[in-house]
Amino acid sequence: MFPSILKAGLIIGAQGGNGALLKGGQTAGYYNTAAASYGLQAGVQTFGYAMFFMTDEALTYLDKSSGWEVGVGPSVVLVDQESVGAFGKNLSTSTLKDDIYAFIFSQKGLMAGLGLQGSKITQIHPE
Which of 78, 80, 61 is nearest to 121 (CA)? Predict the structure, then answer.
């Protein structure tokens, strides 16, 4: 769960924020997400997202790696309001077939553009 991520860009963009991994309702670790992008883009936006690990293999990959890049390792599917509508607003184990699902929430601000982005999630150890 990443409750607050800041994204900003003008041709070159960046985003980042901190979050926590919850297992069985308990905090199991803290993580940082960071991304860089390049392309036709401009704006500033804040948002949060929750990631749901659907397979044991995906969670094991996160636990054993020193961080992973979205697009490398387990597959991540972004689920937005339109996607939920496409699922018939009935997400279940029969409709959720990929490794990890990410749900965006609390979007504020304006960010528009078209570009290439790479992001990485890394475990952190706050003091």
Answer: 61
